[in-house]
Amino acid sequence: MDLTASMVITSLLLSLSQVSLLFFFVKPEQGISGRRLALAIALGIAGCTLARCVETREGLLRYASWGMMDATLTAAALLCRRARGDQARGIAQRVLCFFMLTECTTLALSYVCMLTIGFDPFRTPAFPLQLIAIAVLTAVHGLLLMLAWRRFPPEICADASSLRFSLLSALPYLFCCQITYWLPVNNTEVTPAVPLTMIISCALAFLLISSMEQRIHAEKERRLALAQHHMLELRQQQFISRRDSVETVRRTYHDMKNLLLVLEKASREDMRACIEKTLSGVQPFERVLETGSEAADILLGDKMAACQKEGITCTVMLDGALLSFIAELDLVTILGNAMDNAIEACRRMPQGAARYIQVRTREMPGFILLHVVNSCTGQARMEGSRFLTIKEDAENHGFGLSSIRHTAESYHGEMACRMEDGEFSLSLIFPRGEEE
Amino acid sequence: MLRIAIVEDEEDLRGQLADGVRSVLGGLEAELTCLGNVQPLLDACAAGERFDLLLLDIQLPGMDGMSAAARIRELDADVLIVFVTSMAQYAVQGYKVDALDFLVKPVAHETLDACLARALRRLRKRAPASLSVHSGGSLRIVPVSSILYAESREHRTLLRTREEEIPCAGSLGSIEESLIPHGFFRCHAAFVVSFAQVERLDGGDVIVGGRRVPLSKHRRKQFLAALAAYWGERG
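Above: the input entities. Below: the structure tokens describing the complete assembly.
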């Protein structure tokens, strides 16, 4: 095989490994069109192959090829994620970080490699030129990074585990792409066997990391589910015991009230006043709410009492019959969690600000809606061009949100949260006819 | 301009409420109608007058506020109704007339403030909007409220309204971009539907203004969540 053909094949294979690693790194979006994905892969491979062919030249061209490779790979990464606005900047930022890291390592490795074979890279006549090239490359990268950082809020990238994995996924990349420096050949002598070995080791590393990531993810999920399950049981148990006690108190109250009313008619003036006082004392045990759903009555009654204590105005406009398709304990999970989050948010409001919670149902021809709205301290946030993206911090709004979502999903419903102008709103939707 | 009606039988309370509303609205231009019972309001609504916001007491001479609200709701599906009353036990019935809020007397200034802020937000979102599209070489103004969905069919972009189908220039993506702030959603690669017109789900389809629009399986979750949020902020 002649040298050029071998070089092109090698470059192709190398690029393939690089592009596949990159896709692992950015995780292509589900539901992306095949045409787009193919375009991204083709762009990545073409760009990298070209860059690799150029890379064998010396001097400035070599560094230009690095920049070209980065640019094409970043473009490919953005193409395979249908990202807009903040998200796109986030990806670009992460990819650039990744290349900064790999390029610095490449350089260090190549110098160490030259030193080990007894060649002093600092004394070569090309060294000043290389230094300038690297300075320019770093400056451009740094500038791009800084721009991305400025315009992109750092909290999404600051997700520690995702950053760790970004760095970790650079390792197989480094290993495979930089191993050539440790082989007793130069770029022009690399035969197809070398990249093949690389691809295999690359695939192994890829499998290792992805299985590790899956494991960690599964473990996290399991722990969360366990904790949630625990919470759920606790809440439901509380509800059951509460319901029993409410039942007893109500029965006693009823008997007592009748007795007192009889006595009131029969007794003297002073006793009458005393009885009247007792009657008004037991008044709170009258049912506070009549929504048509016993679970909602008891639960919301309790939560309203808690609101009163905290000075929160709680308005319940609820048609219990509308929610009758939800099992009692599931309704307790949904309303209990939603109310606890809302009360917690109101508690954090500064003195003097309005504290309110509103619970309402809404009936539409094809859907049933349940809204819980509360005042909160969060600032209004633009949500980019998308009509709705559930924000990370809305997700962390309370531990209970995910169990509300799970419960809603078991009735084919969906949940949405939104924070706007000092108001947090949680909306649940259940399509009709599918609720069973 | 905002049109607000206050119905409250006690004169000094009515004055206080009106002052409260005025101070919260600040510089906003608003026409405040203060009434002692609901009859004039019912007559006005029956005569076709439209209000943006009603503040109703429940205990009123003649017809009570709740029944009046139900009557008005039949006449005007859009008006925002807020009850201002000392009868907290009726609050739970508020859903029947799709009440925006239920304020218990005495109303604190910040409660009224928050309630009116929400009302204004709703009204702002409901403000009529229109979309201008290039159609067959001319510019057409289409009211957004009349659009059922936008569709991309055989490399053409079509705007489906209740009455007609308008072919327009530009990709579905560009139309989507301008429709999304008005509560639209890409429910399928080739369809962008209006949440306001969504009637129900039927299998894998959405029924929009009596027409069937496919809903992609992988977009179903997002669609429902966005729909919930849409009604959450407008309902």
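Note for the figure: The longest helix of chain A spans residues 193-266.
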